[in-house]
Amino acid sequence: MAADVRQSRWQWDEFLRMRKEVLARWPTGQEVDLDEAVAYQQGVPRHRNFALTVLRAKSEGITLAQPRGGFATVEEQIALLRCLQDQGGADLLPLTTDSYTRNERFAEAEKGLAESVSAGRSLLNGLPLVNHGVKAVRRVTEAVEKPTMVLSGTSRPCLTAEVGLAGGATGFLGGGISYTLSYTKELPIAEGIRNYQYLDRLCAHYWEQGVPIHREQPGFLTGTLIPPGLGVAIAVIEARLGAGQGLPHYSVGLGQALCLAQDVAALGALERVCREYLGRFGFGATTLTIASHQWMANFPQDEAQAAGVIALGAVIAGTAGVTQVITKSAHEALGIPSPEVNAAGVRLTQQVLRMLEQWRLPLDPEVETEEAMVAAEARAILDRTLDLGDGDWALGAIRAVEAGVIDVPWSPSRFNAGKALPGRDRFGAVRYLAPGEIPLPPEVREYHRSKLADRSGGEASGMMSERLLADLTAVSRPVSGNFGPDGWRDFQGYAELLRRRAS
Amino acid sequence: MRARRRAETRTVVTGVIGADCHIVGNRILQMALEEAGFKVVPLGIMVSQEEFVKAAVETDAAAILVSSLYGQGELDCQGLRDKFEEAGLGRIHLVVGGNLVVGKQEWDEVERRFLAMGFNRAYPPGVDLRRVIDELRRDLGGPARDG
Predict the structure, then answer these.
(1) A336 contacts B71? CB cut-off 8 A
(2) Which residues pair with B42 in a beta bridge?
(3) Cβ–Cβ gap A224/B24 under 8 Å
(4) Which domain holds residue B48?
(5) Cα of A227 to nearest chain B Cα, Å
(6) How many domains does chain B have?
(7) By CA distance, what is A105's nearest residue in B?
(8) Which residues of B are part of the catalytic machinery?
(9) CA A366 to chain centre
(10) Is B63 left (phi over 0), alpha (psi -120 to 50) or beta?
(11) Which residue of A122, A334, A468 is in closest CB contact with B28?
């Protein structure tokens, strides 16, 4: 049945048919009464609504800071959210689910929850909100003054969304293409798209009843040196598919590569190309907001170095002028952060954002060129995708993955071609070492080639694993000072420098 | 690329256990093992205990290298040694590495916990892969040389 996934809007009875099966996946599904949930959400004050908060920030030109985070029990989760809100100054709050919940392995989540309770510490990496049920989730969302969003890295969001939204969450992160390619091994893309169509249709229903629900796709993909044009293309398709189910507002994002020029350019291209395609295909009225995810790959183990990564992430978000920045903590390399360390990451980000508020950098021409290249790459992938789908974006996406036109580096999915290989150029920007079947326009291909040619150090030397590891750990390596006893023979000496200055 | 390849004919199994989908480090490990000459059977992400055992039986593997990055490794790894014993492979070499627990905990204590669980080696995040491969060779009884 997933084989006939198309972009068209689901009929309500089609949605209800699947809903019956969704709610039966775990006993707490029976607690979800959609009419009661909508009525409950209509009473949630505006300052606790995620979509309204984001739209207000967009209209006022403000960047909101949003951490991730989740623990096994309701009490721990409330303590975490209060800490992020009060000590971190977070604008938006997370309900990150544990990995069993993300994979709908609710029986294992139940066991992990029980063991967490008896051990007195969380053995789960997030909140098993389906196991907790609607009433418990309401206790969490009512315990704070900021809006909450469900963060569940999953291709199977349906029941988690039903319980989360009925529980007072007003946002849900995820996309059918992005998460299926980043977080699954065996699930066909069509299934992932279908599951997210269900979610988008559910959220559109809330909107129609006067309850804004924030939908957002996660542009970070595998988080590991994703060429931004590819990320933009996938974001555009997911925005289009969401709008197609009736969503009047959608948020798209990209993961940071920590190359200031390229990251800022990519976020500009993301908004430009997304607007362009939504307009071209009849969804010009959809409001669009942009999210920037702080570094998603290898973090330094050292807390001071990690703070540097977070600070640069805030600079990127503030310089690009995005509406949301998703923050990291100084314990990222070590695992799930404590509430206090997590809150410190938010505070650090807020501090940098505040300092950048009155001070915007003039754009370097290099950033403009980069933005044009990212946009050209995205458009080429999008146009080929639409061709492959005979005018249907859902079908096009499925076929584009099959054809390797959409090919996410490091994807664990067996449906992903895995031919495209990224690396950094000498300025730290992400380029294609090999584009595989991704249809790069000639000028983009040449641009990447020329940037890589500048890269110092030979590509042929050394083992491939060590070369890739060098790129992947460029950010996380321990720092050391420059200039030991070696290498002074080639230095001309300061007398020479002074002579040159005098002449 | 294969300049430092040594004669090494043994098979090892790699995979990310449980509901974890962090593949990048695991792929690099696979690549480094292959470059060191091992024959690698990569099971990818979200590998169950049963799948590790099945792969070991089918490929006559000398060692199993279990990765976990998402914090729930402590739950996922419980009983893995027993599963191998049930399959008659009780003495197989078991290695685990990554972010094995939730939160920042003392590594010595984490290592003790995983060794007590029946692993022969446990490695913290960011470990040098050359060390992992050297110790693997040593633990398996030196590189098997084919003349």
Answers:
(1) yes
(2) B14
(3) yes
(4) 11-139
(5) 16
(6) 1
(7) B19
(8) 20, 22
(9) 25
(10) beta
(11) A468
Instruction: Report the distance separating Cα A136 and Cα A73, nearest Å.
Output: 10
Measured between alpha carbons, how far is A457 from A466 in angstroms, rounded to an integer?
13
For an interface test with A, give the residue of B2, B99, B104, B131 to mutate (most A CBs within 10 A): B104
Alpha-carbon Rg of chain A, whole angstroms? 23
Contact A141/B at CB under 8 A: no
Q: Which chain B residues have a beta carbon less than 8 Å from that of A329?
A: none
For domain A2-356, give the CATH number: 3.20.20.240
* Separation CA A1–CA A447 (nearest Å): 43
Q: Shortest CB distance from B19 goes to which of A100, A338, A465?
A: A100
Name the minimum distance, in Å, from the CA of A17 to any CA of chain B: 28
Work out the minimum CA distance from A453 to partner chain B, whole angstroms.
20
pLDDT in tens, chain A (503 residues): 456 899 999 999 999 999 999 999 999 999 999 999 999 999 999 999 999 999 999 999 999 999 999 999 999 999 999 999 999 999 999 999 999 999 999 999 999 999 999 999 999 999 999 999 999 999 999 999 999 999 999 999 999 999 999 999 999 999 999 999 999 999 999 999 999 999 999 999 999 999 999 999 999 999 999 999 999 999 999 999 999 999 999 999 999 999 999 999 999 999 999 999 999 999 999 999 999 999 999 899 999 999 999 999 999 999 999 999 999 999 998 888 999 999 999 999 999 999 998 766 677 899 999 999 999 999 999 999 999 999 999 999 999 999 999 999 999 999 999 999 899 998 899 999 899 999 999 999 999 999 988 665 444 445 677 778 888 888 998 998 988 888 888 787 787 778 877 76
In this structure, is residue B2 part of a structural domain? no
Chains A, B: CB pairs < 8 Å: 104
Residue A59 φ then ψ, to 5°: -70, -25
Residue with tokens 């510490």: A121
Question: Does residue B75 fall inside a structural domain?
Answer: yes
- Residue B5 in any domain: the answer is no
For A103, which of B19, B23, B129 is closest by C-beta distance?
Answer: B19
Q: For the residues of B79-125, what is the DSSP string, one character each?
A: THHHHHHHTT-TT-EEEEEE--SSS---HHHHHHHHHHTT-SEEE-T
DSSP string, A152-210: ---S--HHHHHHHHHTT--EEE--TTHHHHHH-SS--HHHHHHHHHHHHHHHHHHHHTT
Domain spans in chain A, listed from the N-terminal domain onward: 2-356
Minimal Cα distance from A301: which residue of B?
B126
Amino acid at the residue A190? A
Which domain CATH number covers B18? 3.40.50.280
B66 with B52: CB under 8 angstroms? yes
Nearest of A127, A126, A152, A146 to residue A137 by alpha carbon = A127
Picking from A123, A222, A465, the nearest residue to B74 by CB comes out as A123
Q: A121, B102: Cβ pair inside 8 Å?
A: yes
Distance from CA of A60 to the nearest CA of B (A): 37
d(CA A444, CA A53): 38
Measured CA to CA, the distance from residue B100 to residue A448 in angstroms comes to 38
Is B112 part of a structural domain of the chain? Answer: yes
Residues 54-113 of B with CB under 8 A from A: 70-72, 74-75, 99, 101-104
